[in-house]
Amino acid sequence: MAIKDVQTYIDKHGLVETTDSEVDKPIWRKPGFDGVRSLLDMEKELSRYLREHRDAQNLNRGQVGMMIGIHQEIYARHERAGAKLRVTRLLHLAELLDFSPVEAIYAAAPQFFGDSQEEAAVKNKLVKRILDLPAATAQNLLMLVEELSPDDPADAPAKPSRKGRSD
Predict the structure, then answer these.
(1) What is the DSSP-derived secondary structure letter of residue 160?
(2) How far, CA to CA in Å, does 17 sit from each of 39, 149, 160?
(3) Which H helix or E strand runs over 88?
(4) Between these two residues, 22 and 155, which has the higher pLDDT value?
(5) Can you say whether residue 164 is alpha, beta or left, with left for phi > 0 and alpha for psi between -120 and 50 degrees?
(6) How confident is the model over 30-80, as pLDDT tens digits?
(7) What is the pTM of this model?
(8) Of 21, 26, 33, 47, nearest to 107 (Cα)?
(9) For the chain, where are the E strands, in sequence order?
(10) C-beta of residue 94 within 8 angstroms of C-beta of residue 100
(11) What is the Cα–Cα distance from 89 to 85, expressed in whole angstroms?
(12) How far apart are CA 73 and CA 129, in angstroms?
């Protein structure tokens, strides 16, 4: 059942009404470190991220396009923020270009990682380290963190933080 008062939801989650060139109506967004970042700006950051990782793998656009089953010009539009990048395509590109989708999200929207740029950078670095751990080390680290945590967040009901994420 949907909530009856959407304004209460908006207020509780710190959403602000804004406009965006990508949408022809007002939308509600969560401000980042420097206000509300446009959807196009986030697309541009994802595009830059893709270019950098394609270049790091010494692949050209035609080769990547072939591997994901699209024409090189269509792939090039993703690298120029001229075409919307679906989540499933981002996941496919992460497989091919050897990056974590979490890193791509950080590049586009670091505010999901913390309440300040410094906190977000630290948490991003931590996530990258965790993803690189051997499985046994990750298991040991998880046990240690669970012992240090007063409650297991997986067992507790989700409660939104100031950023609207479940802690």
Answers:
(1) B
(2) 14, 36, 19
(3) helix 87-97
(4) 22
(5) left
(6) 999 989 999 999 999 999 999 999 999 999 999 999 999 999 999 999 999
(7) 0.79
(8) 47
(9) 16-20, 23-29
(10) yes
(11) 6
(12) 35
